[in-house]
Amino acid sequence: MPEQPPYLRVADELRRRIAEHEWEPGDRLPSRTQIGQECGVGENVVRRAQELLISQGVLEGRAGSGTYVAEPRQRVRVVRSSAREQPDKSPFRADMRAVGRNGDWESRTDAKVPAPADIATRLGIAEGDLCVRTSYEFLADGRPVQLSTSWEPYDLTAGTLVVLPEGGPHAGAGVVNRMAAIGITVSHAVEQPEPRQATAEEASLLGIQKAALVTHIRRTYYSDQGRPVETADIVVPAAHCEIVYEIPINR
């Protein structure tokens, strides 16, 4: 078995000392020099270990002050389920209501945006075909918990009341309900989650450390005719949220 990288060994040691209450929430950790001497590693190794624990919500860095043990925080539960789609209701608000939080979002829509190659492939259209792109920042009790960038083929909704996802009589109703309003039945969605590090822009919007761990979900909705009608890149911070999938059982 390959030897564990030094920064992971140091991270495990710091995590152990926190679990054994050597340091309590709010306590300032010793300097990187001191920790490095105790663990037999250099300061850069300690820095990588601390950055990992910061991304996991175990530690927090304070500019000009040092690194501290983070206060325990309750993670927001984000449920992925077909049951989320309800007539004339926002799936996100329903999710947040279910866990006793107030859900809201901010959005910006750009119409007639040429589809980049990867989005075109996911939507089954040609690269450069026009799309409606909407960027979202989802909030739970005013705190950012999720980002999403949605793409819909412009020729699918052009000239209808649902061409703008956040405008008109069906604003904020979700993809399934909006498509139903123009006679398109969404039969299923495919989601592909994977872990990665946050970009600088994502970290800034979510209020997390740069390169913190996030779950990136590529979601695509399909009509009952098999056509992709919307695809989105959803970003959820791992330290602040837990993702739960509900799988319906048909009997």
UniProtKB/TrEMBL annotation:
Residues 4-72 form the HTH gntR-type domain. Signal peptide: none annotated. Pfam families: GntR, UTRA. The keyword DNA-binding applies. Coiled coil: none annotated. InterPro entries: Bact_HTH_transcr_reg, Chorismate_lyase_/UTRA_dom_sf, Tscrpt_reg_HTH_GntR, UTRA, WH-like_DNA-bd_sf, WH_DNA-bd_sf. This is UTRA domain-containing protein. It comes from Streptomyces hebeiensis. The lineage of its organism: Bacteria, Bacillati, Actinomycetota, Actinomycetes, Kitasatosporales.
